[in-house]
Amino acid sequence: MNADTGQGLKALQRPAIAVAIAIVLAAVAASLPRDNIFQGWIADLSVGVRAAVFGIEDLDSGSVLVIGEDARSLAAPELQNRPRALFSPVYAELAEKLFAAGGRGLILDIILNFDAKDLRVGDETPLRAYDVPMLKLLRAERDRGRLVLGRSSELLPARRFARMAGENGLAMVQVPFGASNVIRTVPTRLLDVDGAMHPTLSGRGASLLGQTDPPDQVRIMPTGPLTTLPSVSLIDVLRCGDAAALRRLIDGRVVFIGGMLPSEDRLKTPDQYIRRQVPRADAIDPADTSVACDFVPPHTRLDDDPTLPGVYIHAAAVDAMVGGWAVREVSRAAEVALVFAAAIVAASLAFLFTPVFSAGLLAVLIGSVFGTVVAALEFGFYLPASWAMAAAPLALVLGYGVRLRLVDRKSNMIRREFGRYLSPVLVQQMVDRGQMPGLGGEEREVTVMFADLTGFTAISETTESARLVRLLNRYLDTIAGVVRDHGGYVDKFIGDAVMAIFNAPVQIENHALKAVSAAHEILRRVEEMAEQDIANGDPHFEIKVGLSTGRATVGNVGSSDRVNYTVVGENVNLAARFESLPGVLGTPIVIGPEAAKRVAGEFYLLRMCAIRVKGKAAGVSVFAPLPFDQVTDETVAISGRYDQALSWFEAGAFAAAAELWLELAALNWPGAGPSQAMAREAEALASGPIQENWDGVFEMRSK
Fold this sequence. Notes:
Elements: H1 3-30, H2 37-54, E1 64-69, H3 71-74, H4 88-100, E2 105-108, H5 132-140, E3 147-151, H6 159-165, E4 170-172, E5 185-187, E6 189-191, E7 197-199, H7 201-208, E8 217-219, E9 231-233, H8 234-239, H9 243-250, E10 254-259, E11 266-268, E12 307-309, H10 311-323, E13 328-329, H11 332-352, H12 355-378, E14 381-382, H13 386-407, H14 409-418, H15 424-433, E15 440-454, H16 456-462, H17 465-485, E16 488-494, E17 497-502, H18 511-535, E18 542-558, E19 563-568, H19 570-579, H20 582-585, E20 589-591, H21 593-598, E21 603-611, E22 620-627, H22 633-651, H23 654-665, H24 672-687
Parallel strand pairs: 1-9, 1-10, 2-3, 2-10, 3-4, 13-14, 18-20
Antiparallel strand pairs: 5-8, 6-7, 11-12, 15-17, 15-18, 16-17, 18-19, 21-22
Helix pairs in contact: 1-11, 1-13, 2-12, 4-5, 5-6, 7-10, 11-12, 11-13, 12-13, 13-14, 14-15, 17-18, 22-23, 23-24
């Protein structure tokens, strides 16, 4: 297999795994039920969001009317002394009014299971003829089926009512509960305990409006609150004697009547996130007849109660079928396709991005799926998305699991090799790039740092070895941590020194500036640790740092079975040479000319001298970088005098240079140490033999 073929297979590996994960999850979803608690919540929320985004549309197609037996009606003088079990004459009067006003039918979401003739007072049955008006009306409407009584599997109307109503005059009041006890689908027919299929109230209502072959069930996903279905209080219809007003209200509609007291037959409905409060009709004086033909809506619920009277459910199902807002369910294949699409996208995120970023994109993906559900609903389609929204995070988790197990072996190797020496951010950059530095190297501009602890030899002579190692590790760990925090790479520990690289193996911007900033942070941290150790009576270290910026070769160096990532070249030798200068020049940090040029705008640079470097004919200038917050106008003025002394020194005027440097060494400023060192060198040269071919280069004499 050639390299191109291998790369091609690797490029196909991740998409193939994502597709496999998506296929498995789609197959699992295809075997699961469409309706579940999560899907029910999504459906209800989508109804609310659709209303918020596209606006609320009241449910008034002209097909149904709801009449409520609300508290105001039952408190009216005409009804307050009449038990509800004896309301059959009221229903008969109501039916006559409705039919005269053009009503298509009256459906009672009430089971008339009490026959007044069964009421006995001694041997007498004083109410034997009480229900006759209703019985006559039921018999007259028996063939047309315009008057429908409610029944259930367990409870039938009283025998005389049931016999007079006949098969066409009875319908099931029950509605099966969905997930979380919310009524979301309404059947048009139900199987009775006797094994026979009977129509429900909504099924009979649809038939009365010409729906000869209604669907087995209707999904309720309304465009507005169910309470926006036309609804009035029972007492207002009974009181209204205006035929024209009644016709305007009733003509062409199927009328549903049901109880609306807070304590009875109340159900949770899918409009719970868009329901709005209806007028408080129960606040109107029941004895006030002036509002009769104004048809005040019934008060349907308590302010903190999300439920509705069950009569609205049947009426809504009929209105959905006839009014055109009934939704069509998409095919199971489309639902599974959505699961597949969400899963493949989520699994792909696992292979493309970090977990945190993928989590954010996953939220966007789930939001997009939900948005698709809302958009589909606006176009009249019900798209179950619970399994798609559940599959997406599962696919992401599976994708990361596979990635960590099969795909990220190289990433794990990079983390193992570099995690202890590089900052996590830089290690992640290498992981994202997916390249482990190979055996061999590349030339690159880097900044090399040597940070050496001083005083180790003296301390080791008076400190037992275990304690010495703990003390040394504490300081080295601090130095290495600062290097990592500034984007550097800890190349190696050399006894009591740390060698670090900036701009390799990961490229970083302003590497010289970050290296010099790291050097000052190391100096500050080591001084703080030393102060603490002195206060505790413990041994302590000081620090000296050398930095050089330039071209070098970086890469893995070693054998085929054991390699170390390091840097080699002249720039490394310069940094090592600079690290030996602080002890001679009396300043903690020494940097080379290229590093000084890169940080000139961020640090005040004191050019101390030029030193002799093996292999270079000309001297190499070295600098002490000072943070600007440590530089005053006096410092600038003194450093100008230092430059004057240095120019005399380089011109061979050693005595004058030494005299000026001795003055500067006695002052309290950051260049006092270099001034003392350079004065000593100038005095030695002034008292020695005449220097022929003097080039002004400092020879690093010992203290």
